[in-house]
Amino acid sequence: MSERKLAHVEKIINIEPIDGADKIEVATVLGWKCVIAKKDNYKIGDLVVYIEVDSRVPDISIFEFLRDRNFKVKTIKLRKQISQGLIVPILTLPKGKYVEGTDVTKELGITKILSETEEKDKLVYKSSKNSIVIYFMRFKWFRKLREKLIKPEKMKYPTYLSKTDEERIQNIPQMLTQYKDKLFYVTEKIDGQSLTLYKHGNKYGVGSRNWILLKEDNSSWWTIANNIKYKEVLNSIFKYYSSAKTIILQGEILGPNIQSNKYKLTNFDFYAFNIIVDNVQLSYDEMKLILDKVNVESVICLDDNFILPETVDELVEYSKGKSKLMSTIEREGIVIRLKEDAKVSFKVINPNFLLRFDF
User: How many CA atoms lie within 13 A of 231 on its CB side?
Assistant: First the structure.
């Protein structure tokens, strides 16, 4: 999987007024809506630099207005208009020739803001039952110090495994035209911690989002793996695909100390969203049928005969709503997969969820 492009050259495809606003308007880049200042005189068709949400920009003069936000680019609302990302002039870049889609993340010195789960996954620290250690793990400086002192046993993903990730529809709006009138599954996206379990030949493994964990411990990844008896589960799946070389089960862990435990769970829960057999991803129906037989929960299906709307704005609106896991909070968003080919998929993040939880 390639690194995420946090800043890229794109074209402004539309500019619209904002009700009651004299100094700002909203521009569309790809499928993203960004508030811009009228004084900057952007025009439809202009090439600009689009900086994605979850980015941290450098401490330089053009980004001085973000100092109070610690130079973070996040989802915000201005005059009732959701704004996701930042548009800056292409002249911000070093001299050179730039075309649509050019990744300029490194040129601008932009880095990704890691979520709580990504921070932990980056460390893949050895868990501790010591209450003092558990308390201090909430602090970034302590996690970094512990990483230096306690080297975790881990390795990079082998080539026969794939990491869990979905592209946001705003970055690939052409999907709406390309797959017009096709049938899709819609499942709820939940805010947790990624887990990959696999059997490759006679080898079994447990992985976080970015690492294979070589030593069993009491982390959430290994706790869930053992709770669901992952080797038995993988062997049961293997019975349906006896000629397979590789079986992969992927899902999301929820619970204490994971993404602030928004779902208020007292123990770890696991919701599977992928079964991959020799690089072939099973449909939701196939996956659900197998998971029911092995007593593993699947992510919640919201619609199993969904047809894509004409616009990204309609999909964003559709992503809004209460979580099926906890009706008092907004769901994080949705994941949409093509029924005839489950590898064709993307996510839509609920902006209301981001406004509440995206700090």
Answer: 7
Q: Is 1 a residue whose pLDDT tops 50?
A: no
pTM for the predicted model, two decimal places: 0.85
| Residue 87 and residue 142 in one domain | no
For 267, list phi and psi in degrees, rounded to 5. -135, 170
Distance CA(275)–CA(71), nearest Å, equals: 39
pLDDT at 69: 92
**CA–CA separation, 192 vs 314, rounded Å?**
26
- Residue range of the domain that includes 337: 117-357
Mean pLDDT in residue range 110-124:
70
% pLDDT > 90, the chain = 77
The SS3 call for residue 196 is strand
Are residues 300 and 335 located together in one domain of the fold? yes
Query: For 137-262, where are the alpha helices, taking DSSP H only?
Result: 140-149, 175-178, 220-227, 230-240
Q: What is the CATH number of the domain that holds 336?
A: 3.30.470.30
The residue from 112, 141, 173 where one domain ends is 112
For residue 196, report the phi and psi dihedrals to the nearest 5 degrees: -120, 130
Amino acid identity for residue 165 in this structure: D
Q: What is the mean pLDDT of the chain?
A: 91
Helices (H) and strands (E) in the chain, counts: 10, 21
> Which domain-ending residue is among 52, 82, 112?
112
